[in-house]
Write a structure and sequence with these properties.
Blueprint: H1 5-15, E1 22-23, H2 33-38, H3 46-55, E2 62-63, E3 94-96, E4 104-105, E5 109-110, E6 116-119, E7 122-125, E8 133-138, E9 152-157, H4 171-174, H5 188-197, E10 202-205, H6 214-226, E11 230-235, H7 241-250, E12 253-257, H8 263-270, H9 275-287, E13 290-297, H10 305-318, E14 325-329, H11 344-356, E15 362-365, E16 375-376, E17 383-388, E18 391-395, E19 397-398, E20 401-402
Parallel strand pairs: 9-10, 10-11, 11-12, 12-13, 13-14, 14-15
Antiparallel strand pairs: 1-5, 2-3, 3-4, 6-7, 8-9, 16-17, 17-18, 19-20
Length: 414
């Protein structure tokens, strides 16, 4: 039997889970390499990796004792440093401050995202300027339902992600190392020019986790703003407060995947933590950046009534009724091929919990032609934006208000 490239990589990923620390010279585990080479898919092209390292710029949001002797306090809580036997730091080890993992990275190693590497005591971004997937998508596909509906979004992603979600539907990007993918270097100016050439009013940072290419994201977003092109991000929400604050100043909208509402789910299914994500969502809301949330409802893992009600209660209590929430249907992929698709009845139940809690804009995702894809006026309950799949078929907004009763509809419409 001949395996497709996707099937082969999936088999390797299920049989050979990656460790948290990733060697700079390795794109896949040694046991997986013969399988990949046999299929003509050697991901460890030394010349490719060398070129990536040569052109990779110095990253931001990191420290080390070599550049700041007080940097030890970023790893060690106050009071643990005054010991009888002082701790001796390796001055070449760097501490990444970009996401909540806070990886301490030795020379020649990468962080858990695979996209940031310690090169001779300096943290480098291996994915800066290297979009590995580029498409023009409807903005509804992200999904954003309350941000310029019907607009095209010039969308791209790179390799790498701080999460290890077992259900990831973009795992070929998110779980890859930069040298695994064909990604010619592209400047921020060139990326924005490509979006303008396609007449896309939006650039979307998506597919993998955009936090791993923060430096590039900021440059692209700022260049796009000069040309009146909006920028949006689709994120897992695991970044630290300082980089997020800078992103909020450059972005026009952010969608966060709130993957579940329990620490156990985050730890066992995504290899991450819930609380940093909740902090991120609060911070975005306080900054006033347009925010939408997605919860992928996975059968048996995060679909209990308790979990769905807790999520709705938290959104209503912390964010208010006007943040759009999308409960999205799971389809078997990556390492969760054993689970069935989410029953439509489960999504309906989740949506009703949220509506009963007072949320105004609640949707069911990955269910084409469902009435729950439409946007309804919270006051008169008429359809103000009608959708079929990812496409807008009717728009009954006038100046951001319901055309029928004039009630203001939360969102960015022009």
């Amino acid at each position: 039997m001949t395996l497709s490239r996707r099937d082969l990589l999936a088999a390797c990923s299920r049989a050979l889970p990656l460790a948290g620390g990733v060697a700079l010279a390795s794109g896949a585990s040694s046991a997986a390499r013969p399988l990949l080479r046999a299929a003509g898919l050697d991901p460890i092209a030394a010349t490719n990796l060398q070129e990536i390292i040569r052109t990779s710029p110095r990253a931001r949001y990191w420290t080390s004792t070599a550049i700041d002797p007080s940097a030890c306090r970023t790893c060690h809580p106050t009071g643990t440093l005054a010991t009888a036997k002082p701790h001796v730091h390796d001055p070449a080890t760097v501490k990444c401050l970009l996401c909540a993992h806070g990886c301490a990275i030795k020379p020649g190693q990468r962080g858990r995202c695979r996209a940031r590497a310690n090169v001779a005591g300096e943290l480098r971004s291996l994915v800066y300027g290297r979009p590995a997937a580029v498409h023009v998508d409807p903005i509804e596909k992200k999904p954003f339902y309350h941000f310029l509906p019907g607009a095209d979004a010039y969308s791209f992603g790179t390799a790498g992600c701080p999460f290890r979600c077992k259900f990831c539907q973009n795992w070929e990007l998110s779980q890859s190392a930069p040298e695994d993918l064909e990604a010619p270097f592209t400047t921020a100016v060139e990326t924005v020019a490509a979006a303008a050439l396609r007449r896309s009013p939006i650039i979307a940072f998506t597919y993998n986790e955009p936090t791993v290419f923060t430096e590039y994201l900021l440059e692209v977003a700022r260049e796009a703003r000069k040309r009146a092109i909006r920028s949006v991000m689709v994120s897992c929400g695991f970044m630290n407060a300082a980089p997020l604050d800078e992103m909020c100043g450059a972005l026009d909208a952010i969608k966060i995947d709130l993957k579940g509402f329990s620490e156990t789910f985050y730890r066992t299914v995504s290899n991450a933590e819930l609380q940093p994500v909740l902090r991120t969502i609060r911070q975005i809301r306080r900054r006033g950046v347009h925010l939408e949330l997605v919860n992928l409802v996975v059968p048996t893992l995060n679909d209990s009534d308790q979990a769905l009600r807790a999520l709705a209660n938290w959104v209503a209590g912390e964010l208010g009724p006007d943040v759009p929430v999308h409960f999205t249907r799971f389809h078997p992929d990556y390492q969760l091929l054993n689970l069935p698709p989410t029953p439509i009845a489960t999504l309906d139940r989740a949506r009703q919990f949220a509506i009963d809690r007072g949320l105004h804009y609640v949707y069911s995702g990955n269910v084409p032609d469902s009435p729950s894809n439409h946007t309804y006026c919270p006051k008169c309950r008429r359809i103000v934006i009608e959708r079929s799949g990812f496409f807008v078929t009717a728009n009954h907004l006038a100046g951001g208000r319901c055309a029928f009763c004039r009630y203001p509809i939360a969102g960015v419409w022009t």
